[in-house]
Specification:
Layout (H helix, E strand, L loop, with lengths): L1 E4 L5 E8 L2 H4 L7 E12 L6 E13 L1 H6 L4 H8 L1 H10 L9 H7 L6 E10 L8 H13 L3 E6 L14 H6 L9 H13 L4 E2 L6 E4 L15
Parallel strand pairs: 5-6
Antiparallel strand pairs: 1-2, 2-3, 3-4, 4-5, 6-8, 7-8
Amino acid sequence: MGTLDAVDEDVCYEFKFTVCAEAYDGGDTEAVIDVEGEVLCREGHGDDTGVLRAGELSGSVLRVGWALNHRESLFDHCDAHSQTLHEIHALLFRERSYELRSEIHEELGGVIEQDVLVLDVIHVFPQHRGRGLGLTLAHRFIELFGRGCGVAVCKPFPLQFDVTYDGAPERIAQAGLDRYSCDCKLATAKLARHWGRLGFRRLLRGPYYALNLEHRLPALASLTSVR
């Protein structure tokens, strides 16, 4: 868990992550470990403290080394998990192999560690935006779960265009997404630039962006207006 004090001295944000602890500690289990994160906003002091959810994260650790050691098909695990991991496997790995494609090494300047960290969804709720919470939450996620991973991957895609909101303008408004651009191309480019502040760069001119975890992450102070 991490904490971040807001501009208002009566407000403090906490970051909590939930994983399958036994599996992540090296248990004999699946090649994909799911991680769910949340941002909690604490307001007030003492008995008057209130707690509200301010945001959420979904991600995964793709344990390539585990699959190799247990002679498990990396493709089968990714394909069974989700379309996202199916696409990431096809993008990153050589066919029927546990090794990254040479093009990926060239794009990222050489990747040493085997495992892959996947940042799937980050959603900061409307009243808590503008404080850098999304980038800070991603930063914490990478710090905590990036050990043993060579690369982190994400696909910048604005939530207002997600299929879960298709044909539901009231849900879009409730999520505070109606104030954002209706131009998917422009909104995606803006979001990609935003994640570029963490060091993510576009892979092979496709929709996925990656970060070589051998490189040092930017300081938190450069990512958020919250001190």
